[in-house]
Amino acid sequence: MIIISTDEIKEVKKEIVFTKNTILNSKKYAKRRDLLSVLLKDNQTYTTSQIEKLMADFMKKGKVK
Predict the structure, then answer these.
(1) Cα separation of 39 and 43, whole Å?
(2) DSSP codes joined into one string, the chain
């Protein structure tokens, strides 16, 4: 039987973080490179869920009237 502590479970749930440069050079976000270059800050790291939220928020608020 394998016993896993709650600390180990919490550690597994942590998301991987990426720098702005890594995100801008990724294939996943190639079509949104221009948008992300403006939204992301240089000296900060982001998870994929944070990136998706930033883009979604911008698309809701960023519409031209």
Answers:
(1) 12
(2) -----HHHHHHHHPPP-EEHHHHHT-STTGGGHHHHHHHS-TT-EE-HHHHHHHHHHHHHH----
Phi and psi angles of residue 46, each rounded to the nearest 5 degrees, phi first: -140, 145
Give the tokens for residue 16. Answer: 């991987």
What ranges do the domains of the chain cover?
A: 14-60
Confidence grade of residue 23 (pLDDT, cut at 50, 70, 90): very high
pTM to 2 decimals? Answer: 0.71
Amino acid at 53: K
Residue 19 tokens read as 């720098």
